[in-house]
Records
---
Amino acid sequence: MRFPWQNHESDLQRELAHHLAELTDEFIRRGHSPQEARILAKKQFGGPEQIKEECRDESPWAWLQTIFQDLHFGLRQLKQTPIVTAAVVLSLALGIGANSAIVSLMNTILWRTLPVPAPEQLSLIHWQAAGFPQHLADGGAGSMFRDGVTRVADFFPHTAIESMKKAAAGRASISAYSFALPSSVSFAGRPVIAFNRAVGGNFFSTLQVQPILGRSIREEDNTPTAPAVALLSHYFYTKFFASDPKVIGQILRIDNRPYEIIGVLPASFYGLIPGDSTDLYSPLWKSSEFAQSRNGNIDFNNPRSWVVQALARTNPGNTTDTLQPLLGAAFAQSWQKNREPKPGETNPILRLDDGRRGLGDLSRDFRSPLLVLGALLVMVLLIACANTANLLLARATARSKEVALRLSLGCTQSRLLRQFLTESAILATLSALASIVVAYATAKGLAQFISNRDNSAPLPLTIDLPMLASVALISMLTLFLFGLFPAWRASRVDTNSALKEGSGSLGSAARRWWTPGRLLIVGQMGFAIILVAAAVLFTENLRNLSSQDTGFDRGNILVFGLRPGTSGYNKDTLPPFYDKLERTLASAPGVESASLATIRPMNQGGWWGNIQEVGKDKKFDVAINAITPTYLPIFAGKLKAGRNFTAADMAPKAPKVAIISEDLARQLDPNTFPIGRKIRHGDDPSPKAESMEIIGVAPAFAFNSMKERPHLLWLPFETQKEEATVVLRTKANPSALLPSIREIMRQLDPNLPLADPFTMEELVARNLQRERMFATLCGSFGILALLLSVIGLYGVMSYNASRRRNEIGVRLALGAVPRNVIWMVLKEAIGLTTLGLILGAPAIYYGSKFLEKELFELKPLNPILIGISLLLLASSATIAAWLPARRAAALDPATALRQE
Amino acid sequence: MAQEKSDLLQGTLDLLLLKTIAPGPLHGYGIAQRILLTSQEVLQVQQGSLYPALHRLERKSLITSKWKESENGRMAKFYSLTPTGRKQLNAELDQWRRYTNAISLVLES
């Protein structure tokens, strides 16, 4: 490789040679012999090196050359201490990279605004009330969450949205939308379950999102008589249609009804929430959910049917404060008159919530966990910075002799500073590059933890470069601060005494107990114990939850959903279909038994209600599921008492019967199983409400989640239900059986897609997603913290020990036993570690209190767990200090002293 | 070469160099010779100042250089003025004249 200044060098050489040659000629012309002439010329010319040196300083490449020299020397220095270099780069890369990933995730979930123009104009329309306003609504579809003590919900009657739209005319545009619902979609013979969000005709004009292909949904599409149309999300367009623009204008079947594909949304519009799983959008009036009026009571013209959500975009010059009373009045007018709230309930009050970040579900779920993770990661970063500082400090002290030598040989202060700056810059560049890799890898892993569906669009997680840069800046500052320390100290050092000072003697600074290195070690240990404790805590929590006895055999169960009611079956054809389905699957090879249920097990959500014994007041909250007779044997084996359902119980006109879980039975009657007693739904207070006879008591088992154990109420499966969950008990590995099950289902009905097939183990794992995320992340943080602080401790201890070689040599020569020397070194490490652990303890105490209150049901101050963490850290610290201590004790006193 | 020599005033070397190559490209040895001849062997530019000065002027883009065959068949590095160099030369000449004028006015008063 040739550098520009090397060209310059040879150029200079040739130029001076030419001058010399001309001069020689001149002397020859004056009558000297060639040999004489050459000598005379050289004499007159003087030292060429001196000229060259001066010309070099004028070279346009002079600065580059110095930098290159610095780089070269710096790299050689770093290569001489590969472990220190690697430790610095690695700890900074992990610290910076993981932090940027978490911050990017926080940005995506907590702070990023919707990818639409002027998102600050958007509001989400909610209502708040104490309890559900039963006097106004028969049912709701949407989400309800707690905001302090009040309940906030996002669902409204469609009529209310229409009158709000009129009331806000000119001031804001209001658009209705619905929940994204799983639908059976088929195109060109390929069926798939896709999420369809029904939206008002002005939804996309309100959001100001333009399709990249075709056209958007317009007001005229959103009438009961208009032809049905569908707009594709970019993700669905690429995944299911392979980005084929010819699909525009073609017919897609959604829940077995034809829709014309009219356009494709831009990739930048991910939906109403990061990681929105919506695959396609269709007009509200065409939404099969409403148009078909499945339950009979969902009707846009019925003000008691609260089934749509709405968002508003205020026009410029208007605020939500002026809008709120208008919309509130319109909302109240849509209610039925003369209805008074029941005791304990209130009329709902309309409120407008900040909508610039879209729907708040993810941020509600993940705000506290992310903030906790962020705080833990900041500690990791601090440890990494302390480590860097420590290692650089140790190295700097080791180089004080070199610095003194260079200064005494005439090296200028600025050149010295530049040299150390260059070394820091090399380290910084290496760490920055490595941290980018770490950031991307971590972000990818994190996004997977938070994705909510198997094949949905991934969380639009991008590493925010300014974010990465700002995190990097902090660490780089540490790097430069401590990297330049030796140069700074050199400016104060008396070169003479530094040179004379032997390698083994102690500098005056080392005699103080609070050297920067020691303070850093104490701080590091304090943070490390917090992180290790968190790691142990969350790992133990996950282990507890996932190894919890679910009450049934989790292996060999396969679960998937079917929606035959939206794929061409009706109330008459559904019962025989379900019957055939169950029999076909039960006789399939590898399947032990097959059953159907309304609610998917281990799926967190469910069908909730309360029951009371007829004639008694006490109500019990229950999780309900309607099942076929084969269901309970798969999970619970034999019943505790009474009988299981039979096919006859599933007939529409059959007498109402129920099976309850054992814990509920004990609540109803602690002495005997209440077989034959009557219960009824507590929601329906009318005396006419149908009662059910308890025919059996089943063992209790985990039904909806690993974290709660509700009372269970089992009802016979309704064979006219439009959708069902299939649960199979297989003979062997259920995921291996899935392809053959798919084939059987294809033969049964090729137009019926399987929705989200999972094994029970997978469902359990998804159920503990958040806990797993915490355990995995905190586990890695803990290991990282442990590793970093141990490296730091080792570095400082072995450095200190080598500085004290002389002293140790004298001690050994004077008769000290190696054990005493080991103890002398260990004592310091143990003291520093203990101090750090003591300082970290209050943080663990208060931190775990906070976690207990905010996040999880865990018992954080388990003394055994704290003990394990302390032991882990203390033992690794001892090992880290013991290695250099043993080396010091093995010192040959004669060698150590002779080095002086 | 036993003539009396004058040390060059600080800053005048650049002016001399620019002026010397103003008529046409010249190599380092040629420049030194030309200055020696035109100054009637009073001003002898030492190699130790000549080349750093040339390189400095080149870095400032007042002159450029090119390798060419010289009159006696050797490859030599020829320096010539750039347009900026010519402007600089004229400016410095003006300044020099004003300066020497002023000096002589004082000295001969």
---
Amino acid sequence: MHEPILSIRGLTKTYRGGTRALDAVDLDIRKGEIFALLGPNGAGKTTLIGAVCGLVRPTGGTITAFGHDLARDWRSARARIGLVPQELATDMFETVWRAVAYSQGLFGKPHDPARLEDILRSLSLWDKKDAQIRALSGGMKRRVLIAKALAHEPELLFLDEPTAGVDVELRKDMWRQIAGLKERGVTIILTTHYIEEAEEMADRVGIIRGGRILMVDDKDAMMERLGTTEAVIALAAPLGALPPEIAAFPVELGEGGARLVYRGGSGEGGGRAEVASLTQALTRAGVGYTSIDIHDSSLEDIFVGLLGEREAA
Amino acid sequence: MYFNWRSAYAIYRREMARAFRTAFQSILSPVLTTSLYFVVFGSVIGARMEPVGGVPYGAFIIPGLLMLTLLGETTSNASFGIYMPRFTGTIYELLSAPVGVAETLAGFVGAAATKGLILAAIILGTARLFVDYEIAHPFLAAGYIMLVAASFALFGFILGIWADSFEKLGIIPMLILTPLTFLGGTFYSIRDLPAPWDAIALANPIAFLVSGLRWTFYGTSDVPIALSLGLTLGFLTVSVVIIAVIFRTGWRLRE
């Protein structure tokens, strides 16, 4: 495997007052991937980003970016990292063009109008370039933040809740933008609590809660490993007990024997095949049914299940 | 040590742009204040006053009035310049940029010194409408004004990082700077004060600043110019050290 673009070891942050926002976090980010950091509010997502980007001073641990220790070589590393913050924090009275040009200069790049025009056009901001930022809609403001973060052509981009408070149309548009950045070779780390977003975008998913990374895996592998199929079969007549023909299936009776509920499979089609054989077994046993409702668990079900499990433990 | 000129220049331009956005207020306010002082102290009262140390009273008060406005404007401007980004959250960009304390200060303080010089020019131009005066050492005066502006921009910078409310931001200039400037020989020579007040007045550091600027104007001062210069440089150095420590520890910036 290639050397990771970002490597975090034992990262800990305890805020004054004792809140432990990060608790010995280990994380490796691969070059060119989209990594989704998934977790409920207050899980430590923003603190983790802040620690890498220089907004938060870590209490302990090391961060290595592009092979350099961030505590020492923060200058060269930060010049290659971009950040789109969660809050819509912009200089309201500045024009779009000047705000983006400022970011380019602040990160040490020579003024490059052609590059800025490219960025603004790709984000559909070009016709707004002379508008004051306060006159823009929320979605446009977020694009300005993205444009500012891209002005110095970062290789590693952090997007903290990029679609929070953005309507469905804009969210889809944002996903296209992010996919476009990945095409250009930018490594992207995004935090979200919309699981749908991680499911749509991410190559890999990390789940964080209470300042600890609970799990990191390829999205597809995670869904395969933890996914299940659930089938609810409405029976023609209630059953008192499971007939022997179907006793081997992972099923149970519900609603006083009126429903048969199946939970099993890997989420990758295996479950559906097993439900098909289950129905044949039911027919062989002479059990009639009136409807079948099948669905595969989404990342959301996995996520909720995983968090619930940890809570119970 | 590595210094990123482009970053420093970006900060400088942004700070200057911020001032020009409110140019009307930035220019009108000192013009109006200075005019009012000259109408009252220069023309009405000044006409009945004896010259101070050979300088007509109207001209005598110019350096003090300049210092009064310069200290107040520079401090509050610089403190807002760093407090507002902290308040609105836009400071994330500065903190995540490959920018250290040197570039930050060069940008902020360089802009403050420029603005101080422009402000001084506006005040002197306004004063010219009311009284005649000549500046004995114009280049030293300009240099001293920039030095004081830079020092108080640093002070304002510290204030803007320390403050966690608008009230705290306004309280230091109002409760400390303005009284000290008024009592620091803006309208009179400290040497004319009766004992022990002349000695007590010298406990006020701003008396040294007013006296120093007056020396560059008229060649006369209450305290030796070297002392004024030394004190200003000392204040500047202490402020730079404090800010360097703030950046090193991340106090109020990276908590």
---
Amino acid sequence: MAAQTAWQFKEGVAPDAGSFVPAPKDSGELQQIAGRSTTYWSDAIRRIRRNKLAVVGFWIIIALFVVAIVGPMVSPYSYEDQDLDNTFQSPTLRHPFGTDQLGRDQMTRVMYGSRISLAVGIVCAALNFLIGVTYGGISAYFGGRVDDIMMRIVDILYGIPTLIIVILLTVLFKDKGVNPLVNVFIAIGLTYWLPMARIVRGEILSLKEREFALAAKTIGAPNNRILFRHLIPNAMGPIIVTVTLEIPAAIFTEAFLSYIGLGVSAPVASWGVLASDGTEAIRSFPYLVLFPALAISLTMFAFNFLGDGLRDALDPRLRQ
Amino acid sequence: MRKALSLVLILVVVVSFFGGLSVVPSAKAVAQEVTYNLATEPATIDPALSQGIPEANIILQVFDGLTRIDNKNMPQPAIAKSWTISKDLKTYVFTLRDAYWTNGTPVTAYDFEYAWKRALTPELAAAYAYQLYYVYGGEAFNTSIKVGSKYYVQAVDAKGNPLTKKVGGKDVPVPDMAKEIDPSKNIGVRALNAKTLKVYLQSPTVYFLNLTAFPTLMPVCKAVVSKNDKWASDVTNFVTDGPFKVTQWSHNEKMVFVNNPTYWDKSKVKLTKITYYMVEDESTALSMFQSGQLDASATVPISELPKLVASGDAQILPYLGTYYYMFNVTKKPFNDVRVRKALTLAINRKGITQSITQGGQVPALAYVPYGIADALPGSDFRKASQVSFYKDNDIATAKALLAQAGYPNGKGFPAFTLLYNTSQAHKSIAEAIQQMWKKNLGITCTLKNEEWGVYLDDRTNLNYTVARAGWIGDYMDPNTFLDMFVTNGGNNGTGWSNKSYDALIAKAKATTDPKARMATLHAAEKILMTDMPILPIYYYTNTVLLKKSIKNFYQSTLGFVDWKNAYMG
Amino acid sequence: MLKFILQRVLSMILVVLIVASATFFMMRLLPSGPFSREKKLPAQIIKNLEARYHLDDPLWKQYVDYMKNLLRGDLGPSFKYTDRTVNNIINDGFPVSAALGVVAVILAVGIGIPLGIWGALKQNGWQDNLVMFVALLGVSVPNFIMAVLLMFIFALGLHLVPAAGWGSIKQIILPAFTLAGYPIAFLARLVRSSMLEVLRQEYITTARAKGLSERLVIFRHALRNILIPVVTVLGPLIAAVFTGSFVVEKIFAIPGLGRYYVTSINDRDYTTILGVTIFYSALLVFLNFMVDLTYAWLDPRIRYVERKVS
């Protein structure tokens, strides 16, 4: 097991690097010292179940999904039905979240909007995780010239104004019949992983010089195994924090994209769009921004609870 | 002793109390200072280069033109104390009064001649130079080609197409060396002496005296500007002749004006200081208004407007503009006038203005808005002939027209896209109209919002089916609304073309008799409203946040604010 | 090390040039140009304008000319603000944004890091839960709502500070907190999570076992090791905050540089787009360089020069 590997060299006598003969790279047996994967995952699931907050977070997320799918179906209103005689109604039993500037039922709109926002939040977090972690990990692990080039690419992507890229995307996607959400995923996927890549890189730069990593290397474990089984699990803390905190950021970015003209078109509105539209009327009709903002916060809390649980479960050093 | 002392004390208190009362003036003098939110950083304060309303709202405070627009939207003598107009309405002779620049030198006719010619110089590239195309030779000079220090007309080939040649990879217009334009001779503005300015127009222009109050036509101090091209970038060089002068310009933050002691009409100016802020966010401006940082603001958040109007903190002012949708008449099915008419009739404008825009807008049942004088004094173009060309929310007729066009109950009507530029107000209106068409006619459209530049580009290239648009008048005449729809007009945007419409607009331009001219314009509007390349929705209004202590505030129907006569009461 | 620094500086210059070039050509692909208006200008006037700003030259020539001027430090005239140059705009806006940015970064670091440490030390106690709850709230409330709420409460409600504007110390408070909101929360969570890991490591146990005081353990031994993710975040954060936030500057009416990152693109003000982009990206690569140097200082094991594996 990874943690053991670290322990062994910490407590035992560190091998003299000069006298050590590297094992053949393709030696499969020797890598097995990294542990059996079945145990690792079942162990993680066992421990996540014991974490109450994580379980609560998990069920909130399930509930959000159920509401997103079933809510608009059972609601007596549709997200687009207008009633110009009943605009800006405060919350009542008939309209628990009130009605908006066109007299539409805000609760139905929030429920319908969760379909977009949850999809955006989760897909973007996943993209962020996949691209950012891999990119940052590779950059740091190989270091030197590779790191310099990969990180300079990140700097370039940071530097080019996202707004220009997004406007060009709207022109590119126009009349192409692509699902508008896919456009959003592409736009967010293009630049959203940059902070993650930098954070992972910073962690791995330090971790790869630690004893357990050097040890894995000296016994001839292949690069991808060292990176993905030894180093990245040890950087899980900052990774999970970054992923969960970028979920609300992605939800609001979707609202910005929709402002530029990328994404689903009105009258469908995501949480982000509902919240930013509601902010314009915040003085007189604060409930219009309150409910979508609450929905975003709730999602965010749920993912954080689950994320913290995941972190504890996946971090090899926190295992008993 | 003690008693006596306390008596004295009481006396002192009583006397000082009454004495104090009598010292306090009966009406405390109000500081004649005002803070106003311009809402945006002006692009320039050089009158020749100015384009938008924010720039105009600075220039009109610090400059005085030949004329100045009064509170009834009529031009009044300003730097020109009088004028004569020739019978053919083409020659104007202005007599200037004794007026002075802020640097103490007199304002002369030479300054006007210089300023107008400067604005027309091709290399200055003033965006609003076309406001001077009314002056004889103005357009020719502005579009001429400079060779050395001289200007020439662009050469044309046998078919009359302008000639260009490739030089260093770019197309350069070829000058016709036989046709020189000499700005000192070939432009219809000349100072006969320091106090007399003669202006010769390209064609009779009945609203010319309104134009002489427009920012582009303001004089500039020749002695200063001819020596310093960047004179407007530094307020210390910014020599002006208006009621106020600029003392400070902190970019994106504020601009400070004080009353101008050299102004010819300074006795009328009561405000001693105006501070313009550039607060872009409407809600922030309202917060600053409520917390006393602002006395007035050019912007009011829509959602708060009804409350603010009711409390008297906001005012609704007339604004010369029309909010409309345009049809791409080159695209099926909108090439069919019955379809366009059906879509026009099937919307409930009253519902939109009362429930959504809520700013006192008037449902538009024609194109030219209220507020433009017709031929007879005191008359209104809108009321003079036909107030409306169709009924609002006329669903029955709309359905019948749609059926005639081959789409009974919307059956078989192709799906189309309604395009608008991103803004919450445009979105709400589009959502409402989308639903009205669906409910009333059974036709479906999808909404599409675009970033401003992308939207403009799509509009220009007819890359849309139905699109949101708006037009604010440039001057107080129906022509500013109507001449844009001539065939291939730069602002037509619909692909619509009608020969008799073009002829009427051309005829109105050449007509000097006011009655005949207005009749021609009425006829033109009728054609437009019969062919319906556009779908008028409402006539704009302007809203302003205004403290009740501000008196005599004036904002013209073109949106121009004038603080000259305002005061704090 | 000197060779590393030299190489790095060269690659930084290259990055800025690539960003400038990519932005130059991408922005010219945007529909509409600097002189597009809803009320269209006559074609001949647009020609005059294009001639004035040399937009009628072939694109490659415009690019070469721009790059030549850039090397001389001349960012050109603004197309939108006729009386101003882009150098002018940056000179006016950057000090304002940077002043606000300094305060925001100090708040973020000064509040975020201690909160995170505190949370970790009291792991799962009520203090920890409270800190993390507040931090999460800070992240899930976007800055445009946060700004409005702060303004309502502290300016309109309690009359403690002016609602908006620039010029006095009091006017920095609300925008600085709005700007710092997300970083405070992010740093607090990051520090807490790193701290928890560090506290479980052997050398901390060893240090404690040696009888060192808790304070010494935290500040001498633990803090250094949690700073790597913090420093990583701070690089881009400082670059972003110092060049100004569009939302915060708009809502609090602050005459900074942030607005131009959005308005210049909307206005298609080409020179301003390039100027502010180059400025930001130069600042960013410089700060990321500083971050890398700080890594090496924080963790001497980190080496940038490739090891020769024999």
